Amino acid sequence: MVKKGIERLYLIIIFLFLYLPIAVLIVLSFNDSKSRVQWGGFTLRWYQEVFKSRTIMNAFYTTITITLVASIVATLLGTLAAIGIHSMKRRQKALMLGATNIPLLNADIVTGISLMLLLIKFTRLGMNTVLIAHITFNIPYVILNVLPKLNSLSPNTYEAALDLGASRPYAFWKIIWPDIKGGVFSGFLMSVTMSLDDFSITYFTKGPGVNTLSTMIYTELKKGIKPEMYALSTILFLIALLLLLLMNYRSSKKSTALTT
């Protein structure tokens, strides 16, 4: 009984450390006062200021553009790469999986600096280099989401479809795609989440005049924290939370369908 009480207390403390700062941030985004210690009443003024600010909206548009384009391209390339890795021999597959895991284990700042040093050898830093960087670090997430789906497939079904006269594209869309599309969609959502709130890689690969929400917030914090930043951070948190809930809903729905 005492052990369970200690375990629950430990979990409560951990969750407080994780989510109490976010809760304070959300509360401050509705505070009519600019003070962080005095409540001035409930207001939506800071959210209105967010959408009125040209700087914030430009950064928001840039962020959404980079996120969607990078996620779509990374999903396409990552899916093709996963299919290629799946068809390799065991030793080659192990080697490629090891190479895929390195960017995930690497610190973001190391990845950002290395990509910056590589890109400035060939082109100027700008919007294009940010896109290339985001596509590059999103691809491993897509691969690791699609590969388990491919590993669960029976190779005999695809080969049987080819023996019966189906073309390779037709066999892929009718046999393989229905089973891997859940992993492809999960990889896409993970890419969106990673690109949306990335700072380190974007900071090192962006050029002058290119600002995403994360880099803009970092720049604004040097001047002092404005209430608009609380509202903007709350919006970003809610977008990430919505994506997470969508991923969990799809996973739970699929597991329920499999059990029934």
UniProtKB/TrEMBL annotation:
Where does the ABC transmembrane type-1 domain lie? 60-247
Transmembrane spans: 9-30, 59-83, 95-120, 126-147, 229-249
Which UniProt keyword terms apply here?
Cell membrane, Membrane, Transmembrane, Transmembrane helix, Transport
Pfam families for the chain: BPD_transp_1 (PF00528)
Q: Which domain of life is it from?
A: Bacteria
Main localization, broad class: membrane
Record's subcellular location: Cell membrane
User: How does this protein lie in the membrane?
Assistant: Multi-pass membrane protein
Q: Which CDD domains match?
A: TM_PBP2
Q: Which family, according to UniProt?
A: Belongs to the binding-protein-dependent transport system permease family. CysTW subfamily.
What is the protein named?
ABC transporter permease
Organism whose genome encodes this protein? Maccoyibacter intestinihominis
